[in-house]
Write a structure and sequence with these properties.
alpha/beta, TIM Barrel, 8-stranded parallel barrel, 15% strand, globular
Length: 386
Amino acid sequence: MNEDVAKTSTRLSASAHEAPPKPPGLDLFEPVHLGPYLLTNRIVMAPLTRSRASEDGTPTPLMAEYYAQRASAGLIITEGTNVSPQGRGYAFTPGIYDPAQVEAWQRVTEAVHVKGGRVFVQLWHVGRISHPSLQPHGAMPVAPSAIRPQATAFTATGFQSCVTPRALETQEIPEIVEQYGRAAHNALAAGFDGVEIHAANGYLIEQFLRDSTNKRVDAYGGSLENRARFLLDVTRAVVKACGPGRVGIRLSPVSPVNDIGPDEDPRSTYSYVVERLNALALAYLHVIEGVTQGPRTVPGGFGFDLQILRSTYTGMYIGNNGYDLELALEARQHDLADLIAFGRLYIANPDLVERFRAGAPLNVPDSSTFFGGGAHGYTDYPFLRT
């Protein structure tokens, strides 16, 4: 997830030999450097689980078409992609842990690159947000601690309640770290430009990080340093596989989604993490601002000003959650984010960049087709007529 070229350029006044600066906010549509890449704009397609892979987690040709349709985004971050069979919590989600999956992903990355796009894959282990029917041999899902979440997992027969997970043994944890590293290596073999580590939304990495879901008494629990150990170990393994500038990480510091209770001191917890990520030369920090798929302010009083993380982090910052064009332009005008991620708007608007640029109306997504199915509600949304 880098040199903060764009941030620096927007903060320096133009010299007599430079072109005049763009009107505030309008650089949303201008090229920007991210790690070793020059993106065509600052608009990011956020990860969106759509459950269109094969039952065994192999990406399908329909997925290649879907992502290629959206290649005008400055950066595409794929749906969450399982780093192992144990990491799966939703039916028909893709994996990147076996050769057939890697080969199938190559068709996706090639389709995006032919259209001039850049694409990172999001690496995912759901931890306790799963169900035995999704696990190898019907095993129990795993987690830092055996705490049942009041949440659901999407199975082949529909949504089912999560169960009480099995607490991981200390000796099992390094193998999961290695799975992330192997998945990152596979991602480069599949032609991805980089990877994003999913450390948000109440999944395994965040389950380790927050004291509400981590009651361990070994080297991975208790103190803040111990609770952050798994996240930092995973990040180092992925950076080792991909090299600097090709790894991003996603955090959701104040979101309660998937029954992830609030951390006792979220500002200190996430500031600690971000300070240590600075040393790893990531491509970006991707932050869900507020409640995932919900309000940008968090009810209950356990939020904090996430611009603290923005100012702490020395690299590129992606803002995410509830953005429309007006809010995105405002964020760039006030330098509140370097790039802006859009999620649900991309479901129904494959040409979102062009629609924003033209001030055109947006298609409305059909929520009944969000998870599972075929082309309907996936690749059949209309483009602007030209």
